[in-house]
Amino acid sequence: MRAMILAAGRGERMRPLTDTIPKPLLKVGEKCLIEYHIEHLIAAGFTDIVINHAHLGEQIERTLGNGQRYGAKLHYSPEGTALETGGGIFKALPLLGSVPFLVVNGDVWSDYPFSQLRRPLKGLVHLILVNNPIHNQKGDFHLSNDRIYQDGTPRLTFSGIGVYHPNLFKECMPGRFSLVPLLIKAMQTGQVSGEHYQGQWIDVGTPERLGQLAAML
Predict the structure, then answer these.
(1) What global pTM score does this model have?
(2) N or C, which end of the chain is more exposed by having fewer CB within 10 Å?
């Protein structure tokens, strides 16, 4: 089972920090943000890791290399112009294989135990939901009996951590597109399972939240 770190975002809310450094390479303590993901994934048994990139992506490849010093194999999916989450994953499918794979947003941090996701996938998608943060108080999806729905209450926030079957993308075409319509279509046929994680999680989308993460760690 392979894993993918989404690292192609421009990081507009992080400017001016991201004018010269891609967001995944911003430092939190002694490490880059993306290095926490890499180490966390390796500890959970994910040693084949795909990283997509766009804005200043050559810096990511130059900094991380082939992953040997982490004990992993890093594979890169350069996009040039960011393809959004759906388009980015679709472009990387040849690197991810024909079985379900884990995807984690590069701009979140969590102590979620990735090893729990190394299990059979029931349906097309499994999403990790968390309590709604201040910046997303309305939440994203409804969880009921381990199934996720577009509508319903209470609502929880998608953590940016999920497992996807390649068949979710079987009708897609190359290009820039969102993942959300694919998720909603799969929810309508009962193909999206999920869980509510109540451990540590933070969306590192602004300089203020980057500082919060640094203080927490």
Answers:
(1) 0.94
(2) C
